[in-house]
Amino acid sequence: MRTIIEPFRIKVVEPIRLSTRREREKLLREAGYNVFLIDAEHITFDFLTDSGTGAMSAAQWGRLMVGDESYAGSTSFRRFEKVVRELTGKKHIIPTHQGRAAESILFSVTVDETKYVPNNCHFDTTRANVEFRKGHAVDLVVDECHQPQLDAPFKGNIDLNKLEKFIERVGPANIPMGFLTVTNNTGGGQPVSMRNIRETKELLGKYGIPLFLDACRFAENAYFIKLREKGYENTPVREIAQEIFSYADGCTMSAKKDGFGNIGGFLAMNDDELAMKARNMLILTEGFPTYGGLAGRDLEALAQGLVEILDENYLQYRLACVRYLGVGLNKMGIPTIQPPGGHAIYIDAKAFLPHIPQGEYPGQSLTAAMYLEGGIRAVEIGSVMFGKPDPDDPGKEIPAEMELVRMAVPRRVYTQSHIDYVLESMEGVVKTKDELRGCRITWQPPFLRHFTARFEPV
After folding, report:
1. CA–CA separation, 303 vs 299, rounded Å?
2. Is the pTM here over 0.70, yes or no?
3. How many CA atoms lie within 13 A of 216 on its CB side?
4. Does domain 21-50+312-457 have CATH number 3.40.640.10?
5. Burial of 169 (0-12, 13-18, 19+ CB in 10 A)
6. Residue 208 main-chain phi, psi, to 5 deg
7. What confidence tier does 1 reach under pLDDT thresholds 50, 70, 90?
């Protein structure tokens, strides 16, 4: 096969500032060893997230110029609504400023202390929005998900046996909806099979429970289905995506991922009563139902992005970029979740730094080392993000199942030479890995602590 090239030409460039190690040492100390708290101007390669960090196309920039900023009944909203409805098949399309706003609105009208929300794996904002309403976010992913080196095609699937036992234990009346995150971000960016989506819908339907999707990476999940699931080899990705949505009663989406947007999201559903409640909350917190906290120009860019994301040449390139990064890390002895995900590579920090106990946050230590070595910013997805207080010992913590560091690749931003430079920097981390120390938390907020917590080396 020929080299998989970027399926686009670069027309606008942004300079990258290179810093010295001495500068980075000072900045890291001042940030409390939390790379979230370092200003972007001091980051060389930013893999903190793929959310809102992608490059928009010329067509998207063109749509900005025709944005209708009318407060009510914007024509830009009608175009956005048409694109989302054709994709998802949902009756009610409710725009929001980003995915967590859609989650907040949905759970504010469906969840209280008596309610449970099962999922394959909740991501951080989804879990936090459930728990902020005193609800219970429950992960029921297949066991293969917790075996980082196991190469299986659909490690993002929900375990249907676990799900049915859970429903019978807590009762259908206490489950306002079931969720599937596609792709499964917390589990390593792993896809969910069409069969699993369909059977989850059938199981939930048996108990009268609606199915919602966290659909922020729906296109990447659809392309994995095309590549890996028998019977879909010759099906266009757009049709696969539409079939995915056809099994759901609703969805939340951060369009900052597979919508190619720098901001924006939506909540979509078929239930008239639930939609009415959601729109009432939208008006209170986000804005009028035809703009939902977004400018008309943003709605135009998102409508265009949701069309572009289903380009199969782009999706082939996207997965190849992520795979190239993962293979390069593996060659130098850095273990990652297998197989590579669609939007990110997840380093197994527990396996890479076995001398650092989980209680000293090996993933957080690795993010600091990566920044020091090459100005690389990544995010810990482990016990800092998902550790829980031990109910039997308030002074202790129950660690996360896995200790990961996610390198989320922004869409259409970095070239192969950039990734080669990153890999060269990671070789320096490998050479000094035995010298790395764990860290302790010196301050943390009550929710989503990974964003703002401060640390010090042990």
Report:
1. 6
2. yes
3. 29
4. no
5. exposed
6. 75, 25
7. low
